[in-house]
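Hi both,

Apologies for the delay on this - the queue was longer than expected. I finally got the zinc ion-bound model through. Below you'll find the protein sequence and the ligand SMILES exactly as submitted, and right after that the structure tokens for the full complex including the ligand.
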Amino acid sequence: MSSPHSTPRDEKGQHHVSEARDRVVVFDTTLRDGEQSPGASMNLEQKLQVARALRDLGVDVIEAGFAAASPGDLAAISAVSQQVDGPIIASLSRCNKGDIDASWKALQHAPRRRCHVFLATSPIHRDFKLKLAKDEIIKRSVEGVKMARERFEDVEFSAEDSARTELDFLVEVVEKAIEAGAGTVNIPDTVGYALPTTYAETIRHLRKNVRGIDKVVISVHCHNDLGMAVANSLAGVMEGARQVECTINGIGERAGNASLEEIVMAMKTRADVLRVRTGVRTERLYPTSRLVSQVTGLHVQRNKAIVGQNAFAHEAGIHQHGMLTHRETYEIMKPEEVGFAKSQLVLGKHSGRHALKDRLIALGYILDEAQVDKVFADFKVLADKKKDIYDADIEALVVHGQILGKGQVAWVIDALSTTSGTGTIPCASIALRSAGGGTTREVAAGDGPVDAVFKAIERITGIQVKLRDYQIASVSRGEDAQGEVSIEVEHPTGVYRGRALSTDIIEGSAQAFLDVVNRIALKISPPKESEARAEMGTP
Ligand SMILES: [Zn+2]
């Protein structure tokens, strides 16, 4: 397998060999680093859907997970690598045999695969996390790359926390990793500490001083703690880096990663200065952004560059006048370039399956025929209750319906009723069916009917939480709009988010609360999955 810098995609999504110096490899880590955002975990079906959208977007590499982190991660990487053709599928590994074996297990049937090994190199990580001396770091990095190369043709090495590593030592580690067989060397700013000038200096120093660096691809991976992830990534590219690691909507740990859409559009819009290009089909950016926001529940801020609701809105009268006279007065990009929905197409009772399917594709959903049938059936039911069906309604049907699979659930609602009114104590009566098949009933009183429902669910499941946020929003317009209930809770094992959709707010609230409880139940019941990842740290 050739290294990714020599295999840009052509229009048919095929990879062909070319040595173009201006081609930047887009390495998407939405499913690995992005999924590490608190509360953003995705189930298998959702990960597959995001991976298909990334393929259609034209990314070169999809990092699908960290195989050793959990059996769920391993299964997801394996499924993505076999069901999503085109991009290289990568799995993250520490520099040890167990992790590399897990990545191999996940990727052994993949047509195109990469093992991404990492080890921290900065003094603070060496002294406090790893408790290893410099020579030991080099030894382990070399061993890790060599072990990975025994099975994988394509190996990437990351020097975690590069941006805070002594330059001389970084040169040494990177040089040894290349000698050991790494084809891509990644220089992460793991904690988002760099500035564009310091990060550019790091990349420049490596290019000048590392033997063999011209034979490999230099990769950038920047976090956004100071809001500079994209600026730093571009600074690295201007110094010759030819792979960018990024995520859709910039999701990721803490303040997130560099946002894919911003990097790609900066390269396209300012090609005059940056003089590089990617294989990304930019008109798929907006649909992909919507999809990721929907499946993770992480909303995109309205004023977010490129994909925010207001990114192309011109309110000020003087701007509108300028726009009408000549678009470029205030517009550096065209909304259609990034796939911004041209008009909110409204569907209704008489819309056919074909119209719905077209709309699903425009919204970023690549579903099989059976899945389209299921959405269409739900669409017909909704169209009976609601006159106009907007894009948001369709998205909600896909995300909240069984289309993207709810995964394993511990409890489902069998029956629910509440009483409330002036002079009565609000009460809820609820019956929950467990995965084992048994049904448990409980009645509870509360400050209001919703509070009573939550209390009854807590009693049945034995899972006590602290409610941090509770919101109801209509997903589209009109008096008959569906309401989406979002809940955020605190539990000793972490922060969880749940959502549900209903035309009845009490039922929606119960479903959203149960969504949260099911997530917690999955986390606390063995096998204890992602906890290992929290202790590991990643680039
Ligand atoms: Zn990262």
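Main takeaway for now: The first helix runs from residue 44 to 57.

I'll put the files on the shared drive as well.

H.
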